[in-house]
Amino acid sequence: MSETPRMLELSPGHAFGQGQQMAGDNYIDRTLVDQYELSDMDLQEYDVLLLTDFIDQEYLYKNKQKIESFLDAGNIVIFCGHLFRQWLPGCGPFMPKRIHSHRDYYVRVTAPNSIFAGVEIKDMVYNKGVAGFFARGYHPAPKGAQVLLAFEDGKPITYIDRNSTKGTILVHAGRNLFQYNGQNKTTDRIGPQIWQWAVSEFNQLKGEKAQ
Fold this sequence. Notes:
Shape: globular
Number of helices: 4
Order of helices and strands: EEEHHEEEHEEEEEEH
Mean pLDDT: 92
Low-confidence stretches: none
Structural class: alpha/beta
Distance between the termini: 16 Å
Helix content: 10-25%
Largest sheet: 8 strands, mixed
Strand order of the largest sheet: 2-1-3-4-12-11-10-6
């Protein structure tokens, strides 16, 4: 029987995130805490750690061993943002995309996956007719990573890494994927679907631990 993971989100407390609801907040088992509580927290009661844009990466770098230990215990880390400090195993620094026209923001699905199922590319690329909000760069993916979305030149936007640690890392080079909701576009599917992915991944990892 499928179990529901417990997710901890570290809040950067920035103005852009104030008052924003996450898609599926009514059924996601989520605890939201100030980012600077991490160093004093016992993460054993959580299964998923969510880290988003505007997070203090210098602080995360000082606590990188805690994040690595969480992953090596067979848990999940979801990072949406631009990494510039090496606190996340396997993840290379964010590289801005060279842009000559709005077409350079086009993305493609590189592997069938449940997170972006039914989501139209144009709805990801354009917001009210403007391109570039979904992703403006990429993280070089580690060897063996499953790349879900990439720019048309192959640079990875979203990938899953199950090899760098004993857990699972999902990296997205953009804004919080859980907050795609209420736009009356196919991107409204992303928030609920990434949670369902997390539930499935958690149960798979739990099964591996039990073996």
